[in-house]
Amino acid sequence: MPAPETVLSVRDLAVRFGRSGVRAVDGVSFDLGTERLGIVGESGSGKSTLGRAIMRLLPNAAHVEATTLDFDGKPLLTRPEREMRTLRGNRMALIMQDPRYSLNPVLSVGKQVAEAALLHAKIGKKDAYAKAAEMLARVRIADVERVMGLYPHQISGGMGQRVMIAMMLLAKPRLVVADEPTSALDVSVRGDVLNLLDDLVRENNSGLMLISHDIRMVAAFCQRILVMYKGRVVETLTKLDEAQHPYTRGLIASMPDPRNPVRRLQTLDRRAIDAMEART
Ligand SMILES: Nc1ncnc2c1ncn2[C@@H]1O[C@H](COP(=O)(O)OP(=O)(O)OP(=O)(O)O)[C@@H](O)[C@H]1O
């Protein structure tokens, strides 16, 4: 029986696309507590597939297997889709790269945050708009009245992520999966969005999976990092200078270092990485 603070328990999770397809996720195991866990890897390493498998949001062509995939101590893989929909709207939340795809395009920002308030804050219609305005101010949107009247296509990516986080402050999810939540944003607002995400998970005692290709950003924000290569976890780190695997070192060397921006970036030495993987 997992400890009460275990949000998610994953053992031997594997995902295949198509009958004979390669394993996009291959034997991944980890526990997530009420912590910030980073999932990093290059493009195609299986990060998003892992996040979506946990949310049960993969297309039908995906075959998902695991010896354990428990959320709050209960198995996820056998839950009916109806239950999953309820879970996703309440206890589990997904933040994607472009928030405009997660927001309802035909509802104004004010209306959709007010609907979230009606659903989760157990208040009447009259108070829902006031609550929505309060939440939008909490995510540091300055001109709340104006923004409430806008539609998702009229707001910036950074504003969209703030609106998503405002709705999650109402839903109080136990698990937040954030898949590249800042990669489409201007550098100037990335830090603000990460800080809001931090407030969200701290306030609700949630577990956070932060998926990103940017190992430096993840290391600055998360307490633990799983490094993925070809669907497998090759290394778990708490700090970048613990990295032993040539792939992890390659990922670090291939990302710009804000303290040393003129350094020449390296490319991955795939021969060394594959030789190391063949030994394990
Ligand atoms: N719907 C799908 N059908 C078939 N193959 C897929 C599907 N989704 C992902 N894959 C494959 O699974 C592997 C892992 O992809 P995934 O998107 O999880 O990687 P990623 O690390 O998140 O990369 P990126 O950062 O580019 O999104 C890739 O080889 C990809 O082509």
From TrEMBL:
Key word Nucleotide-binding present: yes
InterPro entries hit by this protein: AAA+_ATPase, ABC_Ni/Peptide_Import, ABC_transporter-like_ATP-bd, P-loop_NTPase
One Pfam family per UniProt: ABC_tran
Entry's localization field: Cell inner membrane
Keywords, comma-separated and alphabetical: ATP-binding, Cell membrane, Membrane, Nucleotide-binding, Transport
Domain ABC transporter: 8-255
Keyword Nuclease included in the entry's annotation: no
GO cellular component annotations of the record: plasma membrane
Topology versus the membrane: Peripheral membrane protein
CDD domains given in the database record: ABC_NikE_OppD_transporters
Gene3D superfamilies associated with the record: P-loop containing nucleotide triphosphate hydrolases
Any one GO MF annotation of this record: ATP binding
Protein family: Belongs to the ABC transporter superfamily.
PANTHER family noted in UniProt: DIPEPTIDE TRANSPORT ATP-BINDING PROTEIN DPPD, OLIGOPEPTIDE TRANSPORT ATP-BINDING PROTEIN APPD
Descriptive protein name: Peptide ABC transporter ATP-binding protein
Organism: Devosia soli
Phylogenetic classification of the source organism: Bacteria, Pseudomonadati, Pseudomonadota, Alphaproteobacteria, Hyphomicrobiales
